[in-house]
């Protein structure tokens, strides 16, 4: 009876949300498509459609924090769609989590709030600090893990993380945690999601199974990421599904609800499953944690292991096809579930072994106690390892695990398995799941953490010599500049700009640089005087507190007020001192200019200081991708 | 009887170590003096003496990680002196801790081990990664806090901390923690030093006293640092004590042993005191934790509070005069002790209040339970706040506190007080104690975390136009270069170098830069051919895998083998592409070149690409100090 009623409930819930699911999916697709004007105004042939509210959001927030602008991604409409869609998709019982979307939602709120303060509104760098702090708060509320949140923001999400941002994020996460505690949504009066109650210490021999769990986590993480990438690339984007995301969502929901009936563990929600797998079986207690407790291994072990193993396969398969569909969907909880299944299986096996060989010297530390092995601990270690294999975070993940389970007793096992998993996964597949999503979505993300082998490449191979420039010796009218800008934008380089050059005895000297956006703004002010000449007086040296026109502007100090006396003098909009690099410099310096200083473009000069060309971030990324390809093909 | 014997024991221990103390002090001073050749070979007028084994070591390790070289600071002799001296000085019962010296000891070991691997021996950047990881391990073993150690290394000690270093440090700290656990020096089978046993949750009203503790921690931290700085500057270095460090040590030991007799809490070791202050008083338990437990507040509270208050004053005073004497001495444990005293006092007061007003609405959450207030929790929060006020760390400190006490239940109170303390302390005194020690010892540390206000200064104000240069149009013989090098070293700039210039039509062009050390090495090979001409062919562009001659060398990728065919061709030793900055750039870019890219020098060129001068790190530091002074005086 009870079984039948639970089956019915599950069935009703899933078919109920079947309908609402569709709505939410439609909502996100239409919304995204209507906002498809991603980076330019003109209609161009191949324009990619980003579904803003879909997926985890962490890869996109990473890209935004690395210095790119995705218009509307952190706006109010996305916030609304994501929040509603997330509620519906979690309620549908799909194999997905809520933490990635929480980071995205927190970033949206941070972004919207920052619009009300001109200090943040006008300064991209300051705004990014807010987004870093918001990400920390997002993880803090998703897991009740304030410190883990700060570290996750530092390790995975943020690009620049100065010490100041660190303790601001810390403050933000703390306030989020206090608020969460007083709102008390779970009714437990605790922040902790998966509180574990056991306090038995671990034994030295257990490091060996923990090591195995680490290896499992690494292998699983690498192959899961690869499979998910291939599925997304070849099945989702390679077949008719590409144009029918809503049907895909319906199919996945159908498949999920069918597989739910396989056994009680697949039927549970992700959070509930992880909670039960982590739990300790107390001898004599009536709570068997949904039959996971094995009292007499010789008879009970095999069916329980079989059930958990089936749950593992179903969870892994469903997560693989679910992550990436056009729904708000995180990866943490499903991954934790898979890892906890694997850990619990190993834990029961060790328990069984100890039960049959209680006198083995291996178990000497147990002193004959048959309740010495805690399978819940293995589940916890396995979950940490798997998550580390998938996301490739280390310290932040370990801290999140401690805060999730409210225990520090197992610091060493968790750390060990996390490190082993990361090492193994990195060896099998260098990119974590977020980086693969970035690659898949072709987001312009410059990875500061990777080492590149420059080989025999030189700066001259990258320099863009033919970049359209504004020449001082010509008469630059508003109209001529507008034409130049138009052709630049039309060629798809609307986010770069023009070097300003003047003729010298033997070559060209660099006077400055003006970004396309700045030029557009300057031109819009004087749009009526099409034939007026425009001047770029760059005689005065840079004065602090003036207009932020440096190429470092996106990261450096505050802006002052622009005192623009002559609307036709464009010098307040130009970067009078772009970063210069000599053409015989190592490519590593250029890379560091982009990654560490956050430059958007670098001007290349020859040994005599003459202008040779520019390298902008887009070209640099393209060059790095070529480098990758070369390495792969060789 | 017991009291008398304990007094005798204490007296004996302190006078015993009195003698050994002297030895250790003598050892460190003589050793340091014999190694006084700090940075140059020539004897110069004012040479500062650094006592390598004295103090905490963290400021010096910070300086080394920021890119400066202190010869011998991380050598075997320092290691030995520090290890022996630390054992003796802790045994002497002085008011000092062991964690700072542990970081130094770990760094020494890391440095010595790295000498055996040529990959690390030849690459400063790799070696610094090892030192970062070693610092993490040092804190990990000092507190049994592996994750806190990694974060401390990240937040306080290290300068560059890429993601790769993060998980390597994590690995290092984990191995250290596992080793410590299996060696089990405390015989408890646990890593945890101050395990707390209470698991009562905190109540919302308690956030107010915690806030007060945060303010106390901040005020104490700021004034303690200031007082210690003034004591060091005016008393220690301003009177006859300066030349008699051994007598100072003897006097401090004498004063410490006299004040020890004041009451039982001052008599305890630092660790023991903190342990007892953190402990919970269980009603009915025979363990009164050295009389700290207040069963009946109306009669017991006042004498206990008075005793703890006296202990607080004595501890604070002794620590203030002890930190900085010529002994291996850390600051963590004494600070924790002071903070725990303050917290315990407040805790007993709140307990007393609740005892007298059990029905007050404030204590409604207690539901009339008279054991509702845990003074040990207040002690823990107070300790965290005080330490945060002194060292200005936030996240790492919170994590260290959790790992020290093995509980995460009080995450929010600890985080709140830590943040309040840091904010208050920063407002009163912008520099933490380590930065003050750096200032006192005049170590060349460039603080990447601070914001400078550049005002109306320009690059031209900083550029060193008169830097001695090597001119291409002259005949540079081995002898002439040796003379130039000699005069450079003699003027105290042995760690800078020469720009290489050639005459052009209207000015000078920069060809490259050669560091004094590289030049010296190159000259030493051809020292016999005094009149031979030396060439600097810099025609070929930079090739990767060649000599590390970039100004980024100290931080960038690996070195290749130097194929030096012609000993008189010095081009392998020169930096063919130093970082260039245009003279109208903002000063912020120069600052970022130094802090983010780790440059040692920057070449300034004018708008036409002609050489204007150089800025080396030393000049930049001097300029920043001037800026500080200006700000203070205005």
Automatic annotation (TrEMBL), chains A, B:
Residues 574-630 form the CBS domain. InterPro entries: CBS_dom, CBS_dom_sf, Cl-channel_core, ClC. The chain crosses the membrane at residues 130-154, 166-183, 203-224, 245-265, 304-325, 332-353. Its main location: membrane. GO terms for cellular component: early endosome; Golgi apparatus; plasma membrane. Keywords: CBS domain, Chloride, Ion transport, Membrane, Transmembrane, Transmembrane helix, Transport. The keyword Iron-sulfur does not apply. It holds the Pfam family Voltage_CLC. PANTHER family: CHLORIDE CHANNEL PROTEIN. Belongs to the chloride channel (TC 2.A.49) family. This is Chloride channel protein. It comes from Antrodiella citrinella. The lineage of its organism: Eukaryota, Fungi, Dikarya, Basidiomycota, Agaricomycotina.
């Amino acid at each position: 009876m009870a079984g039948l009623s639970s089956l019915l409930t599950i069935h009703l819930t899933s078919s109920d949300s079947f309908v609402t699911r569709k709505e939410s999916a439609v909502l996100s697709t239409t919304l995204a498509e209507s906002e498809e004007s991603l980076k330019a105004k003109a209609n161009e042939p191949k324009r990619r459609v980003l579904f803003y509210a879909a997926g985890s959001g962490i890869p996109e927030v990473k890209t935004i924090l690395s210095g790119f602008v995705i218009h509307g991604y952190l706006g109010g409409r996305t916030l609304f769609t994501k929040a509603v869609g997330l509620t519906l998709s979690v309620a549908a019982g799909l194999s997905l989590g809520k933490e990635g979307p929480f980071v995205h939602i927190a970033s949206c709120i941070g972004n919207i709030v920052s619009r009300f303060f001109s200090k943040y509104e006008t300064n991209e760098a300051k705004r990014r600090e807010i987004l870093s702090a918001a990400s920390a708060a997002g993880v803090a509320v998703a897991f009740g893990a304030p410190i883990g949140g700060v570290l996750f923001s530092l390790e995975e999400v943020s690009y620049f993380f100065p010490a100041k941002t660190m303790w601001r994020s810390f403050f933000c996460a703390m306030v989020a945690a206090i608020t969460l505690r007083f709102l008390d949504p779970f009714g437990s009066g605790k922040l902790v999601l998966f509180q574990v109650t056991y306090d038995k210490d671990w034994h030295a021999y257990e490091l060996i199974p923990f090591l195995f769990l680490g290896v499992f986590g690494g292998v699983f993480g690498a192959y899961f990421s690869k499979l998910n990438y291939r599925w997304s690339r070849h099945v989702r984007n390679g077949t008719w599904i590409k144009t029918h995301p809503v049907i895909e969502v319906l199919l996945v929901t159908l498949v999920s609800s069918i597989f739910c009936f396989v056994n009680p563990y697949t039927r549970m929600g992700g959070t509930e499953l992880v909670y039960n797998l982590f739990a300790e079986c107390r001898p004599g207690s009536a709570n068997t944690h949904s039959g996971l407790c094995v009292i007499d291994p010789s008879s009970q072990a095999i069916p329980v292991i079989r059930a958990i193993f089936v749950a593992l396969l179903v969870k892994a398969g469903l997560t693989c096809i679910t992550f990436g569909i056009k729904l708000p969907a995180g990866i943490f909880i499903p991954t934790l579930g898979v890892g906890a299944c694997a850990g619990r299986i190993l834990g029961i096996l060790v328990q069984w072994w100890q039960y049959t060989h209680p006198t083995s010297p291996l178990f000497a530390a147990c002193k004959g106690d048959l309740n010495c092995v805690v399978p819940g601990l293995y589940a916890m270690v396995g979950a940490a390892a798997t998550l580390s294999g998938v996301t490739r975070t280390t310290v932040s993940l370990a801290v999140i695990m401690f805060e999730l389970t409210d225990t520090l007793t197992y610091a060493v096992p968790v750390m060990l398995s996390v490190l082993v998993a990361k090492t193994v996964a990195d060896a099998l597949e260098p990119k974590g799941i977020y980086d693969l999503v970035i690659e898949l979505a072709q987001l312009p993300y410059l990875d500061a953490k990777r080492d590149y082998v420059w080989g025999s490449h030189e700066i001259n191979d990258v320099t863009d010599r033919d970049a359209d420039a504004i020449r001082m010796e010509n008469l630059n009218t508003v109209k001529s500049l507008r034409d130049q800008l138009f052709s630049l934008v039309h060629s798809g380089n609307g986010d770069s700009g023009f070097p300003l050059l003047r003729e010298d005895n033997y070559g060209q000297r660099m006077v400055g640089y003006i970004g396309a956006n700045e030029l557009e703004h300057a031109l819009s002010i004087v749009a009526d005087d099409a034939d007026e000449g425009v001047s770029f007086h760059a005689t005065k040296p840079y004065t602090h507190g003036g207009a932020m026109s440096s190429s470092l502007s996106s990261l450096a100090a505050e802006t002052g007020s622009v005192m623009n006396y002559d609307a036709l003098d464009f010098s307040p909009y130009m970067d009078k001192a772009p970063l210069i690099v000599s053409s015989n410099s190592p490519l590593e310096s250029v890379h560091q200019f982009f990654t560490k200083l956050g430059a958007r473009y670098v001007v290349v000069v020859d040994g005599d200081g003459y202008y040779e060309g520019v390298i902008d971030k887009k070209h640099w990324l393209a060059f790095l991708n070529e480098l990758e390809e070369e390495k792969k093909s060789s």
